[in-house]
Amino acid sequence: MQKIKFIFKLLLAIATLFFTYIYISSIYVLPWEKQEAIEATIEMGGLDELPQGIKNLSIKKRGSIFTRQYIIEFELDNAKEIDNWIKRSKRLKDNIPKIKGNTKTFEIYPGENDSYGGEVEINDNKIRIDMSWS
Fold this sequence. Notes:
134 residues; 31% strand; transmembrane; membrane; transmembrane helix
């Protein structure tokens, strides 16, 4: 009986470690993590809150226990709202973007609060925010 209890506890510990690893390394942001991911990305990039009226919001995460990268993509039909968001964002308003075709890329290195930083890409009405910390 003691041996069975030991084996059961060992298997439970291994399963717990396995599922913890899967949860941490998953690229998908679960519904209860969404707001935290947005807030962390905004804070790391010195950005203003996401504008109202965004469409097709997509949030991905990468990294491990020691590193984290958030990629937020969305669309905004109102070009003026995009410009206002840039002007309200601490790290974008005085940042001169690299322009290639229709894409403006704002580099933010280093990021806020000791984060590594990243970049914000704006292509017409599509916005991609990519921020990291380690």
